[in-house]
């Protein structure tokens, strides 16, 4: 993923907050000598430097990880299309504007391990549930669903490298970005509010 200087994450807090707000991404395992990598959409949680998820036993991602544990959790979201005429302010010709898409994307790269037995899978599930359903009474998976545990495998990705991109108009001046913010709020489509919030936060951050 190409990350221009103006699109770099403003520290760990920015990309972690984004990943925590999504908690759904694509697990990518290249395996060995495959024509294509295995790409699987999945729910996950990030805790510290580890990503926790689980898959059904027949899922091909488990075979690919068994061949090669190097993998990537790819998370993208908070996107909004910015039409060309939105890029024009004042006396600028709207026909000369260049359309773009605002979005955030984070790749968590590292080595994955597959739970060896149901007890280890149950431990992964407990971590997921404690974050996804905090304060909600949930039966312990190892006690309540011992047979179903045998049908899934917990996977833990130890994050060794993070690549984060926040493409929110950093290549233009504040006046043009604020014009886009106003139009995003006016349109109020899916993703527009989140995209506007990213632009506003980055405008307020002296590191941007």
Structure report:
The structure is a single chain. By secondary structure, the protein is an alpha+beta fold. It has helices at residues 12-22, 60-67, 118-132, 141-144, 146-149, 174-187, 192-204; strands at 24-29, 38-43, 45-47, 50-56, 70-82, 100-114, 152-167. It has a seven-stranded antiparallel beta sheet. A hairpin with a 2-residue loop joins strand 3 and strand 4. Helix 6 packs antiparallel against helix 7 (192-204). It is elongated.
Give the radius of gyration. Answer: 20 Å
Number of domains: 1
**What share of residues is helical?**
25-40%
Q: What's the end-to-end separation, in Å?
A: 20 Å
Q: Would you tell me the structural class of the helices and strands?
A: alpha+beta
| CATH topology description | Pnp Oxidase, Chain A
Tally of strands: 7
Count of helices?
7
From the spread of the alpha carbons, the general shape counts as elongated
CATH-scheme architecture: Roll
Written as H for each helix and E for each strand, in order along the chain, the element string is: HEEEEHEEHHHEHH
Q: What's the story with the biggest beta sheet?
A: 7 strands, antiparallel
What would the average pLDDT be, to the nearest integer?
96
CATH superfamily: Electron Transport, Fmn-binding Protein, Chain A
**Low-pLDDT windows of residues:** none
CATH class: Mainly Beta
* Percent of residues in beta strands: 25-35%
Oligomeric state of the chains? single chain
